Amino acid sequence: MKALQLSVVLSLAFSSLTFADESRLDSYLSGLKHKEFEYQYEKNEAESSKLRDSWIAPLQLNYSYSRSKPYTDEQINQNAAIKMDQPIFQSGGIIYGIKFANASKRYSNYTIDVAKRKMIKESVGILMQIKQQELRIKSQNLRIKNAEINLAQKKEEYLNGQLDSGFLDNAIIQRNSVIQALYDMQTAKEKLLNSFKVLSDLDYKSATVPHLALISAKDFLEHNIVLKQKNAEIQKDRYSKNVAIAKYLPRVSLTAGYNWSKSEGQKFIIAGKPIDNSNELSNYNYGFRVSMPIDLNTFRDIESAKIDFLKAEVVAEDKKRELKALFNQVLHNIENSDKKIALSNENRELYTKLLEDTKKLFEAGYKTEYDVETLTNSLKIQELETKIYAMDKQLELLNLYEMYVNEGK
Questions:
Q1: Structural domain of residue 25, as residue ranges?
Q2: Phi, psi at residue 280, to the nearest 5°?
Q3: Residue-wise pLDDT tens digits, 52-110
Q4: Which residues share a beta bridge with 340?
């Protein structure tokens, strides 16, 4: 496709803002939204560390203390023990487990990044739509002025007997129609403002709309955060498969233990004489243990893990194809917007020439002030239409920006 071969550069700026400037991009989200994402990153860090060190077996510590008085003297018993059963070899399972934990962390971080980018895109998109709606409202006010001029002209012509009431009635209907359309635009703007306030702390009046330009298909796919997420998922599932295999292979564990007990007040009566049986004992043990599970579901479990890995590869490839289609669609939509802009520019040139000629005819007495004002408004409308179509292009490019990360390059 010809559009796919366009080689262009992508930049996001207030004047010099780039995609690498995440702190500036973050300004589009509210403080509460940032706090939510911070907690998600922190939780992911904690969960990943827990998973990474899960191969380290916990030490089992036990202590008990009891007092009793079955006879005349009080008896005290104390027991303490520490036990260790630590795997030191799992046929590669320990190494793959650590790699799986690290891959899971990367995948989860990308998942959070994708959600954050989506929300930033939504906030920026709403801000663009607000600015675009303001342009539409300005344009609609000019249309209302032209409709009022047309109504005034029709009223004069009707009163002078030059038109019947049907033309005047149509002029009234047209004026009411454009005014009602203005009310709808104002309502739509209020809805956008409410949505923007939910996502951002910025004042929309002073907030600057970013400027976006096109990106090549190669860069879009190479620096695509969604594809990075999918690739991280492939790595995660690859190590998960290896962990599943190692789970059913031989493992070696070090075992050790230490026991201590102490009793006080233990007495026995032998031949009428009390004998103190209080004592304090301790012992230890250490060694190693070799184990290997024999499970009916071994091959099913391994096969399931392999399928997850193969599926992740297919999903990543399918997502890449989907993103190529998205890129082509965005380019197609931009081309249509460019056509509208070109048409609007042609209309501007036409209205500019007509306005110059009409002003001359007005000075000569052949045209009315109504004609001059109507063409002046029409020219302004075309100028606003050009800006509206340009904003349509920016909104289309946001679909690419949402997933584009140039990693500071």
A1: 3-55+90-250+292-401
A2: -135, 125
A3: 988 888 999 999 998 887 666 788 899 999 999 999 888 888 999 999 999 999 999 99
A4: none
